Amino acid sequence: SSRVVEIQSQMSERAVELLGLPDDRPCLLLDVGCGSGLSGDYISEEGHYWIGMDISPAMLDVAVEREVEGDLLLADVGHGIPFRPGMFDGCISISAVQWLCNADKKSHSPPKRLYRFFSTLYTALARGSRAVLQLYPENSEQLELITAQAMRAGFTGGMVVDYPNSAKAKKFFLCLFVGTSGTLPKGLGTESASEELQQAKFTNERTRFRNVKGKSVKKSRDWILEKKERRRRQGKEVRPDTKYTGRKRRPHF
């Protein structure tokens, strides 16, 4: 439903924000449990590149159909992250990592699968980068299990909780640092910094519809031409630009 899509993209936006990526260059991100590529769309819009992993062929089929810009890999992250060392400038994951706590097969040991995931993720990330994993823990034991395996694998950092006092809006982001321990960002809606954050939140909302960082408004002619140009650079088949590109159709039936 559109509500789910909206929440998903808000969480993707927040996860990318918590990565604290450099403004001056495009980064390569890993999206763990990328599903149909909704968080990937946001990453692409921000001018970054991504590779998505998911265990569900059906979800990845939807991503392919939607012509997402990232590369897609069908894989179970409990078996580890199969990329070369230091390849990614960051990793995000929206509502996926808690599934590693479930033993779906007799042979599955959640602590082992979590450790395998975190230790190979640690290797695949560039030094000084971050992983931000939004998750829905079932209980505090799950949170402790997940966090403990991440720390065992060498990460530092911890849990950032947005809107901790709201039953509905409360969100958990496991914010992990590779090789350097940064300061853990503050959760949104936490008392101490609430005024600053309210203001920041407000101005962010406003600029989103203008072109952030001087980028074209989504779905405008410029935006479409830029997207087509990006695709050509990636060696993809793209229709030639014409005077009709990006033009609204009249509603004649």
From TrEMBL:
<keyword id="KW-0489">Methyltransferase</keyword>
<keyword id="KW-0963">Cytoplasm</keyword>
<dbReference type="GO" id="GO:0070476">
    <property type="term" value="P:rRNA (guanine-N7)-methylation"/>
</dbReference>
<dbReference type="InterPro" id="IPR022238">
    <property type="entry name" value="Bud23_C"/>
</dbReference>
<protein>
    <recommendedName>
        <fullName>18S rRNA (guanine-N(7))-methyltransferase</fullName>
    </recommendedName>
</protein>
<dbReference type="Pfam" id="PF12589">
    <property type="entry name" value="WBS_methylT"/>
</dbReference>
<feature type="domain" description="Methyltransferase type 11">
    <location>
        <begin position="30"/>
        <end position="106"/>
    </location>
</feature>
<dbReference type="GO" id="GO:0005730">
    <property type="term" value="C:nucleolus"/>
</dbReference>
<feature type="domain" description="18S rRNA (guanine(1575)-N(7))-methyltransferase Bud23 C-terminal">
    <location>
        <begin position="176"/>
        <end position="250"/>
    </location>
</feature>
<dbReference type="GO" id="GO:0005737">
    <property type="term" value="C:cytoplasm"/>
</dbReference>
<dbReference type="InterPro" id="IPR013216">
    <property type="entry name" value="Methyltransf_11"/>
</dbReference>
<feature type="region of interest" description="Disordered">
    <location>
        <begin position="211"/>
        <end position="253"/>
    </location>
</feature>
<keyword id="KW-0808">Transferase</keyword>
<comment type="function">
    <text>S-adenosyl-L-methionine-dependent methyltransferase that specifically methylates the N(7) position of a guanine in 18S rRNA. Requires the methyltransferase adapter protein TRM112 for full rRNA methyltransferase activity. Involved in the pre-rRNA processing steps leading to small-subunit rRNA production independently of its RNA-modifying catalytic activity. Important for biogenesis end export of the 40S ribosomal subunit independent on its methyltransferase activity. Locus-specific steroid receptor coactivator.</text>
</comment>
<comment type="similarity">
    <text>Belongs to the class I-like SAM-binding methyltransferase superfamily. BUD23/WBSCR22 family.</text>
</comment>
<dbReference type="Pfam" id="PF08241">
    <property type="entry name" value="Methyltransf_11"/>
</dbReference>
<comment type="subunit">
    <text>Heterodimer with TRMT112; this heterodimerization is necessary for the metabolic stability and activity of the catalytic subunit BUD23. Interacts with GRIP1.</text>
</comment>
<keyword id="KW-0539">Nucleus</keyword>
<feature type="compositionally biased region" description="Basic and acidic residues">
    <location>
        <begin position="235"/>
        <end position="244"/>
    </location>
</feature>
<keyword id="KW-0949">S-adenosyl-L-methionine</keyword>
<feature type="compositionally biased region" description="Basic and acidic residues">
    <location>
        <begin position="219"/>
        <end position="228"/>
    </location>
</feature>
<dbReference type="GO" id="GO:0016435">
    <property type="term" value="F:rRNA (guanine) methyltransferase activity"/>
</dbReference>
<dbReference type="InterPro" id="IPR029063">
    <property type="entry name" value="SAM-dependent_MTases_sf"/>
</dbReference>
<dbReference type="InterPro" id="IPR039769">
    <property type="entry name" value="Bud23-like"/>
</dbReference>
